[in-house]
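Sanity check. The docking grid for nicotinamide-adenine-dinucleotide depends on where the pocket ends up, so I'm generating a full predicted complex first rather than guessing from homology. Inputs follow.
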Amino acid sequence: MSDYMLSIKDKVVIVTGGGKGIGRVYCRELAKAGCKVVAADVDDDGNAETVAEIRDAGGDAITATTDVSDEAATQEMAAKTIDAFGRIDGLVNNASLMSVLERRDWHLIPVNEWDRVQEVNMRGVFLCSKAVYPQMKEQGGGSIVNISSGRFWSGTPNRLHYSTSKAGVIGLTRSLAREIGPDNINVNAITPGFTLSDTQVSSSGDYAKNNAPPSDRCIQRHQYPEDLCGAVMFLLSPGAAFISGQTLNVDGGQHMH
Ligand SMILES: NC(=O)c1ccc[n+]([C@@H]2O[C@H](COP(=O)([O-])OP(=O)(O)OC[C@H]3O[C@@H](n4cnc5c(N)ncnc54)[C@H](O)[C@@H]3O)[C@@H](O)[C@H]2O)c1
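Predicted complex below; grid placement will be based on this.
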């Protein structure tokens, strides 16, 4: 392993929701940086495409098809990772119900949809963290990066269940960071701004085109998945080992805190 402070070479990293959208870009960029990547999306075909792309480029990756809201599936995800690579250094909790959700007034959200969003977006983060914890503890440390949303800062309307779940991810990040800091595991969150992932663009259509870039963004351009990779890679690196419980905002300077 390289001793360069920001190197993540040879780290074994699971990316939930790595089968498409921003998750696929995380997988690709992590592999380019020398990580051994596990694409853990519920979408099996998506995982296979991500892994094929990485292997074609000479990288190392496997699929672990996982519904993050299912405890047994998350445990299999961890077991498959350990079988293949012998350790787990990083977990990027990126899987989410977002682009598939209709934008509508809060009182029109069906209760079963509300519940499913919390199951995937919050319980999923809990279960995946729980699944990797024994291995990270045993090997002496690790890093968890939770993907929240800029909605936490802005209070954006029209997907109240989603916004609520992403605020919950920040609370989970802070308390979990305190609970597992003694095991040398750091836990942080990032809050992406409105990002033109392929899934966001295809599901949002005109909304995506009409809503970016916001006029109060310091860097006046659209946000793309690649804009998020540096923050995720940094938080997985030895350079961030003493940073925990924090929320790193990545939105071109739209929100400041
Ligand atoms: N795109 C944006 O504007 C934006 C902004 C802020 C935060 N985010 C967050 O960034 C992350 C990635 O965004 P995206 O644009 O690629 O979103 P997306 O909705 O397109 O992708 C989410 C991924 O999660 C997977 N997934 C859904 N349910 C799952 C489950 N039960 N188990 C495992 N995987 C599951 C999907 O198959 C998909 O690949 C998400 O957490 C999202 O909430 C995105």
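Relevant for the grid: The radius of gyration is 17 Å.
Also worth noting: The pocket of nicotinamide-adenine-dinucleotide is lined by residues 16-17, 19-23, 41-43, 46, 66-69, 94-99, 120, 147, 149-150, 192, 194-195, 197, 199-200 (CB under 6 Å).
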